Structure to design on (255 residues):
């Protein structure tokens, strides 16, 4: 796949790996709201593929496809960040859900169910489930919402350059510990959804077939599980981080 001059043949590489871009785009679409267009993901992914072809060096010891996947996904995510694909209103509502989860868990000593959360939020159960459906694509970590009023950003409290990436936050030992504990505390059905989605790489329709529910219902369960995990991370991860940097731990909220 090299030209007569010894340079990578870009045209041939693009043709060969175009299907890889499409496959990654459709995989990512399962995690995103319906407002996102797959063609936009593919377009950004092709930019990432071209970037990978330009930057790749065999001497780095990595297979090209492995390297290309990273660049393609990165380009797709960059495009999503720029377009702010999850409406801020929905993100605000999901933060309300996370706060309600925290308060009710403290009150009940167990994960609250959907009816209890809907009641705490002052909305009918159907409206709450609709919110979960609209929040498809709600992420475990956002760059802009990991700071509290009057405090430096969560990411800014990490000293490594890699902390600009939310994945680096999840790789922090304290955060990983809290996250694993949160996963174990999930209601059984939500835990099963997360396991099939992330460990087995099943799509929403396949999970629905296993559980005997609709794809929309799986989406709701996934959004609620993410909200529970975000609530667990925001409550549990801050204290050890502040302690490590010489700050007093945040007082727990009593209800």
């Amino acid at each position: 796949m090299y030209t007569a001059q010894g340079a990578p043949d870009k045209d041939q590489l693009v043709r060969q790996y175009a299907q890889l871009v499409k496959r990654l785009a459709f995989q990512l679409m399962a995690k995103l709201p319906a407002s996102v267009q797959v063609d936009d993901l593919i377009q950004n992914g092709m930019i990432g593929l071209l970037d990978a072809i330009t930057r790749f060096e065999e001497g780095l010891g990595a297979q090209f496809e492995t390297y290309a996947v990273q660049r393609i996904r990165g380009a797709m995510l960059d495009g999503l960040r720029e377009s702010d694909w999850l409406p801020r209103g929905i993100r605000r509502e999901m933060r309300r859900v996370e706060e309600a989860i925290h308060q009710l868990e403290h009150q009940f000593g167990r994960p609250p169910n959907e009816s209890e959360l809907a009641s705490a939020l002052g909305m009918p159960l159907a409206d709450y489930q609709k919110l979960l459906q609209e929040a498809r694509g709600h992420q475990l970590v956002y760059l802009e919402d990991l700071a509290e009023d009057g405090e430096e950003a969560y990411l800014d409290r990490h000293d490594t350059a890699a902390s600009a990436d939310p994945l680096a936050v999840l790789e922090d030992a304290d955060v990983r510990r809290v996250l694993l504990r949160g996963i174990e505390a999930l209601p059984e059905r939500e835990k099963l959804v997360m396991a099939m989605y992330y460990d087995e790489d099943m799509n929403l329709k396949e999970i629905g077939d296993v559980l005997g529910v609709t794809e929309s219902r799986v989406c709701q369960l996934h959004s609620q599980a993410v909200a529970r995990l975000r609530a667990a991370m925001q409550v549990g991860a801050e204290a050890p981080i502040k302690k490590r940097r010489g700050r007093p731990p945040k007082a727990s909220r009593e209800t």
